[in-house]
Design brief:
By secondary structure, the protein is an alpha+beta fold. It is built from 8 helices and 11 strands. InterPro entries: DnaJ_domain, J_dom_sf.
C-alpha cells in the first residue's frame, strides 16, 4: 500500500474541534459518509480525478475503524497534536506581537506621564485641606542602610526626617539638625507603596573605604523604567516619597519611607517658618548625617 502524504483526517476536512468532541464511532461514521460522497464525485468512471480518488481510498483504508481501530486512534492523536503545536505557535506569535505593542505603549505612557509631572506640579495642591498643611515623619532609609552599623552613628534621631508641605513650599529637618531648611524649587513627584519596590537596588552608589554607599537619588532613566508606573500623586503611609529638582533633570531623589502623617494649622506652620527655619539651598539633603571621611573600624580576626 502506498504511503499517504497527509493525515487522513485533514484529507477528509475534519476540524480539530469536531475530532475532539465526537466519539471515535460517531467520527468514523461521518468520515465514511464523506468518503462515499467524495468518491461519487472523484471516481474515474464518473469522469473524476484519478489521483484524488486514489488519495481518498488510501486515506480511508488507513483509518478504517471497522478493520483497524488502533490505526484510527493513532492518526487522530497525531492530527490533534500537530494542529495543537501549530495553533500554539500561531498564538505565541500573536502574543509576542501584542507584547511588543504593549511595551511600546507603556514606554510612551511613561514618557507622557513624566512630561505631565514636569509641567503640572500644581496637581498636588489637592493634597491640602484649606487652612492646614501636611507634616510628615520619614525614616531615612538611605542613611539607615549606609550608617546604621557605623560606630559614630549612635543617635537614633539621625535615622529620621521631618518634612512640611504647602502647595508652594517644602521645609525639611533631617537627623539631629534642630532647624528646618527651606528648600527652593524642590518638587514632590508622589509616593510608591513600600511593597511595590525595593529602591535600594535601584539607587546610585559610590565606593568609600572599600564599601559601597547608596546615594539618595536614582537616575531618571531608571525611575521611568522601574518606578513611575507605581507612582501615586499623593502622600501615603508606609510609602516611599520621591522628589525632583529642575536644575538636576536626570536625578530623582528618595527622601525616605513615610512613618507618620499629620495636619498642622497654617498658624503653626507660620510659627515654624519664622522661628525654626533657615533658608537653605535645595542641595542640602544630607544635613545631620555622619561625615563620609570617618574611617571604618578595622575588624579584628
Amino acid at each position: 500500500m502506498k504511503k499517504i502524504k497527509r493525515n487522513p483526517f485533514e484529507i477528509f476536512g475534519i476540524t480539530p474541534q469536531l475530532a475532539k468532541e465526537l466519539s471515535d464511532e460517531t467520527l468514523y461514521k461521518i468520515i465514511k459518509a464523506i468518503y462515499r460522497t467524495l468518491q461519487l464525485h472523484y471516481h474515474p468512471d464518473r469522469g473524476g480525478d484519478t489521483k484524488k480518488a486514489l488519495e481518498l481510498n488510501l486515506a480511508f483504508e488507513a483509518i478504517n475503524y471497522e478493520k483497524n481501530p488502533q490505526a484510527f486512534i493513532h492518526y487522530k492523536k497525531a492530527y490533534l497534536q500537530r494542529l495543537s503545536r501549530k495553533t500554539l505557535k500561531t498564538e505565541l506569535n500573536i502574543l509576542e506581537q501584542n507584547l511588543r505593542k504593549l511595551t511600546y505603549h507603556q514606554e510612551l505612557l511613561k514618557e507622557r506621564f513624566w512630561q505631565f509631572l514636569e509641567k503640572n506640579f500644581q496637581y498636588l495642591k489637592d493634597l491640602y485641606r484649606e487652612g492646614f498643611v501636611l507634616k510628615v515623619k520619614l525614616l531615612d532609609i538611605i542613611s539607615h542602610i549606609n550608617y546604621s552599623d557605623y560606630p559614630g552613628f549612635k543617635k537614633k534621631k539621625q535615622l529620621f526626617k521631618e518634612l512640611i508641605f504647602t502647595p508652594d513650599t517644602i521645609l525639611k529637618k533631617a537627623g539631629i539638625n534642630p532647624k528646618f531648611i527651606l528648600l527652593k524649587n524642590y518638587r514632590l513627584l508622589g509616593s510608591v507603596r513600600r511593597d511595590y519596590i525595593e529602591p535600594w537596588a535601584l539607587m546610585e552608589r559610590t565606593l568609600k573605604e572599600e564599601k559601597f554607599f547608596l546615594k539618595d537619588y536614582l537616575k531618571k532613566e531608571t525611575f521611568l523604567k522601574e518606578i513611575i508606573m507605581f507612582l501615586a500623586p499623593e502622600i501615603r503611609g508606609n510609602s516611599y516619597l520621591f522628589f525632583y529638582h529642575p536644575s538636576e533633570p536626570q536625578k530623582i531623589y528618595l527622601e525616605g519611607l513615610v512613618l507618620k502623617l499629620e495636619e498642622i494649622t497654617q498658624l503653626e506652620f507660620l510659627e515654624i517658618l519664622q522661628k525654626e527655619t533657615i533658608e537653605g539651598h535645595e542641595d542640602e539633603r544630607t544635613q545631620g548625617l555622619p561625615p563620609l571621611d570617618i574611617p571604618f573600624p578595622q575588624h579584628k580576626d
